[in-house]
Amino acid sequence: MWGGNTLKNSQTGFTLLSVMIALAVLCFLVILLASIATVTFRQSANDEVGRKDIWLFFHQTEMELVGATHIECISNRLNFRKDNQEITLQMRGQYLQRKVNATGNEVVIKALNRFSCQKEPALVSIEVVDLKGKMYRWTVLNMIE
Question: From CA 125, how far away is CA 1, in angstroms rounded?
Fold first, then answer.
């Protein structure tokens, strides 16, 4: 009797040990898969959103264009007047530069392939293409003529 009881206890111990090892392996695999999925989904989400510097440029330009006067879109250049300042956005190589009153060379966006704009009576449409060929468009409603 004594020997049979000892054998049963040792088998129970091995069963507990095997369950603990199986749970440890399972936890490790779950953590590994979760980290791989996080990296994968984060990259695909960034690809959908695109370049944050371009979206920031669109928002800043919209803030300037609202209420601006004398807006001109000529090939790869956008000119407008706001608060008695002449502001110019123009492509120079792979850079989009911003000048105020024809002075300064502030680089607004780097690594661009193309910048274009189009003005309609109450709208200004801006289109930017990065070096990877991805196109970004933004339209600004301008109530002042």
Answer: 91
